[in-house]
Automatic annotation (TrEMBL):
Alphabetical list of PROSITE patterns matching this protein: C_TYPE_LECTIN_1 (PS00615), C_TYPE_LECTIN_2 (PS50041)
Pfam family, one: Lectin_C
UniProt keyword list: Disulfide bond, Signal
Superkingdom of the organism of origin: Eukaryota
InterPro entries to which the protein is assigned, alphabetical: C-type_lectin-like, C-type_lectin-like/link_sf, C-type_lectin/snaclec_domain, C-type_lectin_CS, CTDL_fold
Limits of the C-type lectin domain: 37-155
Organism encoding this protein: Synaphobranchus kaupii (Kaup's arrowtooth eel)
Full protein name: C-type lectin domain-containing protein
SMART domains according to UniProt: CLECT
Regions crossing the membrane: none
This protein's record includes keyword Manganese: no
Residues spanning the signal sequence: 1-21
C-alpha cells in the first residue's frame, strides 16, 4: 500500500486536472515546507536578511542559499516565490570571491549557468559581491551589497 503525506496528496489532487508542468510545485520527497525540483528541495523564506545571515539560516536548516544551474532552475525559483504572492527580488547563493576573482555558489557547485540582467554584473567600487534573482524588468540576476536585506531561497540536495 502506498502512503502519502497530506500536503503531497492535496498537491496531486489539486494539480490532477492541470498539465504535468504544474506538478513541479509539489512537495514530493521533501519535508513539509520544502518543494521538490530536480533532485533538490527548496524553501522560500520571506524574512528580510542580509546575504550572510540568509546563508547562515539556510545552513542551520541543512542547506545553502539556492544555486541556479539551468533556465529551468531559474524559472522554478520565480514560481516558488510567486506561490507566496510576493514578487520581490530574493537572495540566491552566488557571491563574488575577491581572492579568486570569480563568482561562486555557496553550496560549492560549479557555475555552469548565468542569468544576469543586461549590464550586470556591475563593478561598483568592489562593494556589490552578492546576487539577487528576480530583479527588475528582466527578472534576472543583479549584484548588490551583501548588507542589504531581502527574502531568500534555501535549497538542499536529496540524499
Amino acid at each position: 500500500m502506498v502512503s502519502f503525506t497530506l500536503p503531497a496528496f492535496l498537491c496531486v489532487a489539486v494539480l490532477s486536472s492541470m498539465t504535468l508542468a504544474g506538478t513541479e510545485i509539489c512537495q514530493g520527497p521533501c519535508i513539509e515546507g520544502w518543494v521538490h525540483h530536480d533532485q533538490r528541495c527548496f524553501h522560500y523564506c520571506p524574512k528580510m536578511l542580509s546575504w550572510i545571515d540568509a546563508e547562515r539560516r539556510c545552513v542551520s536548516i541543512g542547506g545553502n542559499l539556492a544555486s541556479e544551474h539551468t533556465l529551468g532552475d531559474h524559472d522554478f525559483l520565480k514560481k516558488l516565490q510567486m506561490r507566496t504572492g510576493e514578487k520581490h527580488p530574493f537572495w540566491i547563493g552566488l557571491s563574488y570571491m575577491r581572492k579568486e576573482a570569480t563568482w561562486i555558489w555557496s553550496d560549492g557547485t560549479k557555475m555552469d549557468f548565468k542569468k544576469w540582467n543586461y549590464g550586470e554584473p556591475k563593478s561598483s567600487g568592489g562593494k556589490e559581491h552578492c546576487v539577487l534573482s528576480n530583479w527588475g524588468a528582466g527578472k534576472a540576476w543583479k549584484n548588490v551589497s551583501c548588507h542589504r536585506r531581502y527574502p531568500f531561497v534555501c535549497s538542499k540536495r536529496l540524499h
